[in-house]
Structure formats: structure tokens, C-alpha cells
User: Fold these one by one.
Assistant:
Number 1:
Amino acid sequence: MDVNGSMAAQSVPVKSASVLVWDPLVRISHWLMAAAILIDWITDEPRWMHVWLGYLVVALVVLRVAWGFLGPEHARFADFVTGPRAVIDYLAGLIRFKSRRYLGHSPAGGAMVIALLIMVSATAGTGIINLAQDEGAGPLATVVAKVERPPRVPGQRRPPLVIKQVHEILANVTLALVILHVCGVALASFAHGENLIAAMITGRKRA
């Protein structure tokens, strides 16, 4: 109290309501990859755009894998890669809205990161092989033989190469994983009372 008996105003430090979790590289690569996958799945025209978006995805996967070992705490695989039991336990709790909240990726989120990286790599890889076999173009053109195909018949569509069919199947599986990922993010956002989509934009989450 001061000499007049009144309580002196004191400044009390206020704890930050949020903390930075996702660094810029994680956020930018996440949204670039999401956009590239969506555009490439919707259309393969113009052809050059489809191909170059595939190359972009490959570069982003390589960068994200490297960042999983070299990046900050919550970007590293060691922070979120767990065993299947932890993933199952988390999902079982999530559907009852009783799962533990994680500042970084949850066990299920970590498993989805790995699954998507694998499937995106497989999809892009088969696309590059198909480009070499069908058109004799791309980075594998010198090591993958171009497949000789019968000439086009007006009004008829040539049957696709086997590798192209594999590529399309993998692309559809990848899209299914993306849909599951979005549903999981929505459910976790509701269960934990925070907007995880906004967090991947701003990089910040509730402390």
C-alpha cells in the first residue's frame, strides 16, 4: 500500500495464450503439397502443369523428410512417430472425446503424415515412370525404355499402360487418405476445442 493506504497498481505479466508450434517450412510445404495433389487429381491438362506439379510434390516430399530429421522439435519424426498401439488408443479416445491433447501431431496425425508421404511418393514415382514409358520424357527417360504403342485410331482411345493404371489407383488411394485426414482434423478440432486448420496457417496453437 502507498502512504494514503491505497493499493498500488502493479503490472502482472500475462502468459501467452498461444505458442508457435509449426515453423514456416512445415506450413508452406503442407499447403503447397495439398494444392498440388488436389489440382493434379482433378485434371492432367494442361499436361505440362500436371507434370511440373508432380515434380514439385517430389521436391516437397524430399524436403519434408529431411526436415523430419533436421527441423525444430515438432517437425521431427521423433516427436510424433509412435507405434500402432498408441495410434489405436488415441483414436479410441478421440471418438469418445476423451483422448489426450498433443501440442504437436497426435499419434494418429503422425501416422497419417507417414502414410501420406509414402503414398504421395509412390504416386509421383509411378507418374514419372509413366511419363518415360509413354512419352520418352522426364528424368527417367534415359533409364526407362519407351513403350512402343500402336498408332492412334481416330475416334478410339488407346488402352493405358499398366504403369498408368497403377499411378491412377495410387492417386485415388492418396485422395482417400487426404479425405480421412481432413475428417480426422475436423474431429480432433471439435474434441480438443481448437481450430487445427487455422493452426497450420498461423503456426500457433493454444499453450
Note: The chain is about 60% helix and 5% strand.
Number 2:
Amino acid sequence: METRRILAVGAHAGDMEISCGAVLIKEIQSGNEVHLLHLSRGGRGHFKKSPLEYGRQKEEEAREFARKIDAQAHFLEYMDGEVPDSEEARLAIAQVIREVKPDVVIGHWRSSLHPDHAVAHRLTDTAVLWAALEDIGEGTVWRGVRRLIFAENWEDPEGFEPYLYVDTAEFREAWRDAVRVYELFRGGVSSFDYVSYYDGLGQVRGAQVGAKWAQAFGVFPWQRKQKISSLAG
């Protein structure tokens, strides 16, 4: 079976891990290749540590998560809260796409409480296009992205509708274990209980499609189309 490559683009280290990490684990266990691209470390979220210190910690945590699930971690150098909606950032993501050559790209939904998430959506959407165009940026053009989908993040709720559901019940505990490499998800940084929230959300999404536990993704409205030959087919 042909190996597929998946690139998950998060505004901050931890964003994709918590929202769709079980799916990433499932893909790897199925023989596929997973890459995580972090636009920012997310270093401004700690109430005791400096952005530099916490950023370094989050990079170590992101690398440990990737090692734990057998994925690969990539980083851009933008500061938490300052991910720029710029040509430079689009080119940087397009360059990673050309290097990784993913079949599937996972990003943030387009509306968010966090400005970095909304910017990350726009950057990723354009970067997929730019990676496929000649005379933009460097590296070999990559036109192989078959699907751009969006992880379900609690900070990106406006207009998000789950459309693709992945049964990940078998990988629930591996996900819970892996995300706890982050202090943020062990309860040492925020009063928000991330793991309980996403674990409960997984039960809800699973119940909606007859599974014990699932993670869901959104798509652009124009992608919500299916062609069938017959209602009885």
C-alpha cells in the first residue's frame, strides 16, 4: 500500500496535537508519514516563565510529542501573538509543503478567538496554492495536496461544522498519553482542562457517527458535495 504524507500546520506548538493527535497517531500506525509544522512555539502563555524560556520548553515538548508518535516536527520562527499575515510567511509554509510533499494538509478553521489561528488559516490556504505554482518561492513545485481540511479547535468555533469524522477509539489512550508531554495539557499552565475537553468532544463526535470515540474535521463549504449514481446504490 502506498505511503501517504500528512502535514498538520498549527499556529502554536500543541494546537494540532491536542485537536487531532489521535488521527495523526492512527495514520502513522497505518503506515503513513506525519509532519507537524509549528508557526510559533506559543511561548507567551505561561504565567511564571518568560516567553523565551517557555518557548524553548514548548519546542522541546513538541519534539518529544513527535518522537513519541514517530512523526516529524518543523518550526518557523514567529512569536506567539505575532504570526504575520505576510508574503514571507506564505512562502515559508509553501517551502515546507514542497519539502514534505503532503497528500493531505490539516490547518486551522478560518474564524477564531485567537488571531494567530485565523492568520494561520489564511497562510496555509494560500501556501497550498503557492506550492503548486511555478515562479513562486524556491524548491520543486508540489501539486499533490489532495485535501485541505481543518481540525476542530475550541478557539475556532465560529462557523465550524464537523464534516469528516475519523473513528479513533483505538488510539484514544495513546493520544491522551502523548499530549501530556506538554505542561499545558498536564494542567500546569492554564485552568482550562484541555484533555478533558477534547476527550469529551471525542465521545460526542463518536456518538454522532456510531463510534465510541472520534475526531472530526471541517472543510470549505464548496467541498461539501458528493456525487452518487443512485439513491439506492
Note: Residues 5-221 form a domain with the Rossmann fold fold (CATH 3.40.50.10320).
Number 3:
Amino acid sequence: METENRISNWNDPVPSAGAGAISITKNFVNSVMSYMAAALAISGVMAYWFGTSEVLLSYLYNATGSLSILGWIVMIAPFGLVLLMGFGYKKLSSTAMIAVFVFYALLMGMSLSFIFLAYTQSSIFITFFITAATFGTMAVLGYTTQTDLTKMGSILIMALIGLIIASVVNMFMQSGTMDYIISGIGVLVFTGLTAYDMQKIKQIGMVTDATTEEGSKLAIMGALNLYLDFVNLFLFMLRFLGNRN
């Protein structure tokens, strides 16, 4: 399941800070990356566990190959959890948000298990490492660049909206050519969004203490955005690089 959601309040303008905030910024960014890495690890383990077990997959799919009730819950629930974190941000405590994020990562891992049915394990692992290298490069670029990526981010978010609409339309058209084009655009969009989100995280870190309640919640939201960037970049790349079973 591709989760192409964005957190709307993440794109609000952020004031800049002076050089005295370097230590605070690094602590905040480290918190974001730690949350994200933990979520990816949870999803990766769950995806592999379910994707390589016929018994576990039988809980998600019926004998006919269609989704079971649990399968539909696993596919749809992550979208609801993203909305919960986005719209319930001010009401939820940081502990509650961590719990929701962990539950989200678990469900996403289960929903991603389908890739082991569609693609060979070797191509999945190779694509994962290529995605990690691309993501890491763009994250470093976003963190270190002195260029303001705000305008680029706005364009990419509009492109993402168009991408979602095109994906929905192609669900009915079932066009292989359109799917290939959508995948190419998706790779470009999420590659750019990785740099944009990383710069945004750095800016927020300049004025946010990650050890506070508010700082912890912002770090979780930042981790969620980077998690979505990584997963979607991986899925779009897999369409290009993955060898089907």
C-alpha cells in the first residue's frame, strides 16, 4: 500500500535562528532520524515476517486471492492513523503519538508484505539499498544546502496531488504506459521532497528543544514525513527495478 499522505501543518513557515542553536538543532534532527529509523525497522521486520510466511499471509488474503477483513483493515487503517496524528497533533501527548506511530509502522509493515508476492527477494533488497542511498544523499543535501527549498517544496506538493489523482484514474484505466510515467514522476517527487523535508526539519530544530513535550511531538511528525518519503520512494523505485515473480 502506498501511503502518499502529507502532514498539512508541517508546511507552515518556520522562523530562522542564529548559530547558537546548532546544538539544539542537531539534537532535534537526531531525534527525528531515530524515530524514523525505528519505524522503518519495525515495518521492515513485519513486511519480511508476513511476506515470507504462508500462514501469516493467509490472515490477510482469502483463498481466492482477495483481501480478507483483516487485510482490508491493514490496508486502510494506516491512512486513518496518519490523519489522527495530523489532526490530533495538539490534543495527543507525545507518548500517545509515539504509540500511534509504532502501531502505524506495524500495520504498514504488514501491508507492505505484498511486495514479497509480486517481486523477488533479491530485487527487493537491492532496491531497498538503492533507495537508502538516494534518500541519504538527498537528506544530506537538504540539511547542508544554503538554498531555500520552500518554492521547490510547494511545487512538489502540487505535483504530489496530481500524482495521487493520476494514480486513482489509472486504477480504472489499467494503462501500463501511464503506470510507468507515474512511477517515474513519483521517484522524482519523493526524491525532491526528501531534501525539502530535511531542510524543514533543520529549520524547526533551530527553534525547538527535542526534550520538551512540544519538541518531541514535532520530532515524531518530522519522522513520519521522512518515513513516508522513504517508503513511497522505495515503492516507486521497485516498479522500475524490481523483478517480478
Note: Residues 21-241 form one domain.
